[in-house]
Design a protein that fits this description.
The chain is of the alpha/beta class and about 400 residues long. It has two domains: about 140 residues, Nucleoside diphosphate kinase-like domain (Alpha-Beta Plaits), CATH 3.30.70; about 190 residues, P-loop containing nucleotide triphosphate hydrolases (Rossmann fold). Helices cover about 50% and strands about 15% of the residues. It is built from 18 helices and nine strands. It has a five-stranded parallel beta sheet, with helices on both faces. It has a four-stranded antiparallel beta sheet with strand order 2-3-1-4. The longest helix is centred in the C-terminal third of the chain and has 24 residues. It starts with a strand and ends in a 22-residue tail after the last helix. The structure holds adenosine-5'-diphosphate and cytidine-5'-diphosphate. Keywords: ATP-binding, Cell projection, Cytoplasm, Hydrolase, Kinase, Nucleotide metabolism, Nucleotide-binding, Nucleus, Pyrimidine biosynthesis, Transferase. It comes from Rhodosorus marinus. It catalyses: dCMP + ATP = dCDP + ADP; UMP + ATP = UDP + ADP; CMP + ATP = CDP + ADP.
């Protein structure tokens, strides 16, 4: 329940009973009421904030010219509702705009305007204390604390909760344990933006040199590097139930279901305290792109290594001599290229259309390629990883 201060001025004193009936008829409780005549000193103190205004002396003369009624009104939203019942300050304007208002009915002009009401909760508190120093404002404080708490929640957790609930409801299928999903979402997205690592996607065909360049970035910038392929291979080696299925998909160059890769990546990202994270070889399918952004994090840009198949094939066959990978052989390589063109290139096109792609010519030597790559990261200040330069350079971000 809120309280406000009301005053029936000398020009409307003869209508005071009628005005009080209107007040009570509008669901206000009159918690305190006192008729009195203000001394000039008390009037000057009450209207102190207007002391330098031209109308001040006229106002003091008017307000001390007869009896006034000072009241404390009680109601939900008392301050605003009482102002609304009063109508515009100038009774002439009130007659035009709010003919039923108290000022329209009982006032004459801007000075003789029948009644006064506090214009804010803090003014109400000050004015009530002025006329009724003993009045207990605990209830009003409780209300304003409630308002403050509401505002605090609106400014802090409500936006994140809204986003989380909207995201959750859009998922198909929806999580079987919504509260657990929500808690994971909040632990990933709910902290201050500055504490979350910046995410960089690193994409390119098989053998384009993603891993090689990521190693160099990690060395210079101290980022974390998570390769989707490595995480999947680790899952195979762990002997988990889904490991055998993943092994078969890798041999065939097929893309493993996004939920599996996404949950491995999420776990890896959650476990890092680095300020920058390179996600290598993900998203490799359009639905993975959307899922990552809605469920894990937004990202800075896609570093795309552009390399002809012939070059990639030579590199992979060379790598296959020592890598021990089940897919670095001619037959698997052919399948991987096909998957890349049909399934992964559309991801690049999708991000290109959003101007998120930094395209790198990956045919040069590793060191030459890195000279261009590193320029995309030096613009992030080392302290907070906020880009300090926003324009892209022509060698690294030209659209196809
Ligand atoms: N710019 C390059 N020039 C020549 N060989 C490269 C270059 N970048 C990487 N390689 C070699 O090619 C193979 C594939 O590189 P890698 O970084 O593993 O590719 P990806 O992670 O894209 O599959 C590796 O044997 C690597 O040493
Ligand atoms: N997002 C991803 C990344 C890799 N993979 C699988 O892991 C294999 C190896 O990926 P990788 O990134 O280690 O290797 P490259 O093919 O890039 O050389 C792919 O051919 C896919 O079978 C996947 O299914 N989904």
């Amino acid at each position: 329940m809120e309280h406000t201060f009301a005053m029936i001025k000398p020009d409307a004193f003869e209508n005071a009973d009628e005005i009080c009936k209107i007040i009570e008829g509008a669901d206000f409780k009159i918690a305190e009421k006192e008729s009195l005549t203000l001394t000039p000193a008390k009037a000057k103190s009450f209207y102190g904030e207007h002391k330098d205004r031209a109308f001040f002396s006229g106002l003091i003369e008017f307000i001390t010219s007869g009896t006034i009624v000072a009241m404390v009104l009680e109601k939900e939203n008392a301050v605003v509702d009482w102002r609304s019942l009063l109508g515009p300050t100038n009774s002439k304007q009130a007659e035009e705009e709010a003919p039923d208002s108290i000022r329209a009915r009982y006032g004459t002009d801007v000075q003789k305007n029948a009644a006064h009401g506090s214009d804010s909760p803090s003014a109400a508190e000050r004015e009530i204390k002025f006329f009724f120093p003993e009045f207990d404002l605990t209830e009003t404080h409780r209300t304003s604390q409630g308002e403050e708490a509401k505002e605090y929640l609106m400014m802090t957790v409500v936006p994140t909760l809204n986003k989380a609930l909207t995201t959750m409801c859009r998922l198909s299928p929806r999580p079987s344990d919504p509260l657990q999903w929500l808690s994971e979402y909040i632990s990933t997205n709910g902290t201050a933006k500055s504490q979350k690592p910046k995410i960089f996607f690193v994409l390119g065909g098989p053998g384009a040199g993603k891993g090689t360049q990521c190693d160099k970035i990690v060395q210079e910038f101290d980022y974390a590097h998570f390769s989707a392929g490595d995480l999947l291979r680790a899952e195979v080696n762990s002997g988990s139930e889904q490991g055998a299925m993943i092994d078969g998909m890798i041999k065939d160059g097929k893309i493993v279901a996004g939920e599996i890769t996404l949950s491995l990546l999420r776990k890896a990202i959650d476990g890092t305290d680095k300020k920058g994270v390179l996600i290598d070889g993900f998203p490799r399918k359009l639905d993975q792109a959307g899922a990552f952004e809605s469920q894990v994090s937004d990202f800075e840009f896609v570093l795309f290594f552009d390399c002809p198949e012939k070059t990639m094939e030579e590199r992979l066959l060379q790598r296959g001599k020592t890598s021990g990978r089940v897919d670095d052989n001619a037959e698997s390589i052919r399948k991987r290229f096909k998957t890349f063109v049909e399934t992964s290139l559309p991801v690049i096109e999708y991000y290109d259309a959003k101007s998120k792609v930094k395209r790198i010519d990956a045919t040069q030597s590793p060191d030459e390629v890195y000279k261009v790559v590193r320029e995309n990261f030096t613009v992030y200040s080392s302290s907070n990883l906020t880009p300090t330069v926003t324009s892209s350079n022509s060698t690294s971000s030209t659209p196809p």
